[in-house]
Structures are given as C-alpha cells and as structure tokens.
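agent> Task received from the user: take the single chain below, predict its 3D structure, and emit structure tokens. No templates, no multimer pairing.
agent> Plan: (1) validate residues, (2) run structure prediction, (3) serialize to tokens, (4) report one or two observations.
agent> Step 1 OK, no nonstandard residues flagged.
tool_call: predict_structure(input=
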Amino acid sequence: MEFLAFISVFYIAMVVVLISQVFFKTNRTVKDQSTPSVYDCSVDPSVLQDLKEIASMIESGANTSEVRKIYKAMRLTMKLRRKLKVSMLSAFLNYALGHVSEVHAQLSSYVPQQDKYDTQVDVEMSETEAHSTHLVPELETYCYLLVLIFLIDQKKYKEAKACSSESIVRLKNMNSRTDDVLASKLYSYYSLSYELAGDLAEIRGDLLALYRTATVRHNKLSQETLLNLLLRNYLHYNLYDQAEKFRSKAHCVEALSNQQFCRYLLYQGKIKTIQLEYTDAKDSLVQAVQKSPVTAVGFQIQCNKWAIIVQLLLGEIPERTVFTQKRMEKALRPYFELTNAIRIGDLELFRTADEKFSSIFNQDRTSNLIVRLRHNVIRAGLRNISASYSRISLADIAKKLNLDSENPVDDAENIVAKAIRDGAIDATLDHANGWLVSKATGDVYSTNEPQIAFNSRIAFCLNMHNEAVRALRFPQNLRNKQSAAT
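)
tool_result: status=success, residues=486
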C-alpha cells in the first residue's frame, strides 16, 4: 500500500510540474507578443537570404555560361516580388554592389529613405557579410531590374522611367548569352514604365534601335521580346498598317519563350482581324488561348474576347463552354449577350446589347469590330427564316428582321439577294411576286463539309505534335560541358 501511495504521489507531482511549464511558456509567449520587437518593421531575414542565393545563382550562371540558372533566378524573383521592401532592397544593394560603386550610387537615389525601424536591418547585414567581389555585369543588370520592379509596384512611374533609361544605356555595352535573359526582362519593364506613364510613343525609336542591335548580335530572346514590344507600341496607337509592315519584314526566330510566343500570336490575331483576314486571325487567337499558362487569366480573357468576335464575323457561333470558363464568366458576359443576339438574328436585341456594354467594348477596343457584326445578325435571321418557311414575302422578312429604314422591303430584297449570292442561304428570289422561296435542305454528309472539318482537326493535331517535338530540350553534350568548364 505504501508503494502504491508513493507511485500516486510521484505521478501527481509530475502532472503539477508539466502544468506549470505549460503555464509559464504560455505566459512568456503572451508577454513576447505584447512587447513589440525592434525587428517587427524590418526585413524578413529569410527573404533577404533568398535574394542573396539568387545573386549567387546569377554569378554562378554568368561564370559558367549556364542560361538555365538565370531562368531559375528570374522565376524565384517573381515569387519574391510582393515581399520587397525599402530596407530589404537597400540591404541587398549593399550586399551585391558594395557602398562605393557607381551603380550603387545611381540605384540608391531611386530607393526611398528608410524608416527608423527599417535601419535595424543593418544588424542583420554586417559589414563583413557584404561581398564586394560580385562584379559580373549580369548582377548589375539584375539590381537594375529589381529596383525597376519595385518602383513600378510602388506606382512611382517617373522614377521608374529614369531608372529604366539608365539601365538601357548600360545594356548597350553588354553582349552575352546569360545577359540576354536579364536584358529581355529589363526591356519589358522599360516599355511598361513608359506605358504606365502615358509616354509610350517616346521610346519607339529606341526600341527599333535595340531590336536592330539584338538582331545583329543574334540575341534571340531579346529579339522576341522587342518584336512584341514594338507591336504593342504600334497597336497602342492603332497603327495597324505599320505594325503589319514591321511584323512581315521582321526577322523570324525560333520561339524560345512560350509567353512571348503567346503575345506574338495575340498581336498577330489583332492585326489580321482589322485587315479582314478572319481565318488567319482565328487560328492565331485560338492558338494563343491554348498555349497560354493557366494562371494568366487576364491574357486568356483578352484572347477569348477577340476570338469570339472573329468567330462571329466568320458566321460561326462560339460554344457555350467558352463563356462559362472559371474566373471568366463576368468578363465575357457582354460578349455572351452579343452572341445570343446574333444567334437568334434579332437586330433589336443586338442594338440593346451594343448600347448597354458600349463602354466595355470601347475599353476592349472592339467597338469598331462590333459595327461589322450588324450584317451577320441579318444573315443569321435570314437563315432562321429560310429554315422555317418554304415561302415568305419580303415584307414579312423586313418585319421579322426589324429593319428601320425608309424602304424596308427594298432593303430586304437587296439583303436577301446578297445572301443568296454569297451562299448564306439556299433559296431563290421571286421578284415578280416579292417572295423568298427556300429550297429543301439536303444531306450535309453528301457534301465535302465533313471531310473539310476532319482534315482541319488532323492538321491541328499534327501541328501540335510538331511544335511539341521542337520544344524538347536535351542535356548538353559531355564535350561541351568540359569545354565550358575549362
């Protein structure tokens, strides 16, 4: 009995000790949370360490001419973009460039002054930790890029313009495979800073000069980027003819970046649409939608809007699943109502949708294309009438189509005659009696339409297979690795 009592007292004592430890630990945690630390407003050390690793990766890639490391550094930078702060940026510039370099002095002038709490980051970043040996040009370009991204995110477009212009001046004296990746990114933000400031036309000549230099040096990634930037520059001011002339005469290079290739397809689709080449425009826009990343929702919305308009201009009705895609329903709602009006062939419903969403169409720059759709609405209505009636008078056709002209019967006769000549409807026009006589519908499988549709699907699959094969990447040869190492 005494042994059992001893055991019970022992266990009770252990429980009391555990409870006291938990209580004191919780009390300490609450106390620590109640008293703010001097580092609460400073840099997250893990993010600063990630930037240092990126700098080491860029330095290693530049020394060994491994472009894949530069690509990886860019991907990691985009993940850290939203976490950048003033103190973090200043600390990284001190680490990568040192305190006495010319580039450090230029970039520090664009970084805002640190707060009183942000100065505590110097404790995390000691003088002995700074590496003054990072003198590779790629690292200087990366610092310019990092500061430029920070200024654009902070909506300081005036400072971003000045910083980007200085970075472009330094880039003109650099020419290497690894620097080409950073330069292409810097060109994109260079154009973006001027576009956000409303001065995109100022850099058109500079972009043309940079494109000529990239072509001479065979910097393919910079060529792709600058080609898209120039097309965007032209299209921003509705200079479609100049954009097409430049696109047709530009030096064609192999697509290295899927993002740049998707942008090129979008711009090409827009140009072809304005120039009435709807079939080629549809192929480019649909291909841009299929190749674009899933996370690029805004880009996919823009491509789908233009693809819907092109399909309607071709006399096709887009599938309903296009308008019900995830995270796109609200943005594509105006085009859905427009498509519904064209599918029914109701001019009044078409006018209502056009007036209701006119501001959205002007913002998307598709209002001039929607004006062309009026004739397609009439054609769709005629097809429905021809399929429903074997014979109908022109007066009834004008009434059903809601033609608001002075002589609706004469206009209906002209519209019907043109639709018959273009092959939109299979019917004959009786001018004497003022009738439209529809012919009996035949078997579509007795025509070549199924063969044409099947052939287009086969061509699409073969094209996708060929592009997938061209996109394959293979490891470098052992001899090339040894020669690069030596």
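agent> Step 4: summary for the user.
The beta strands are 391-393, 427-430, 435-438.
agent> Done.
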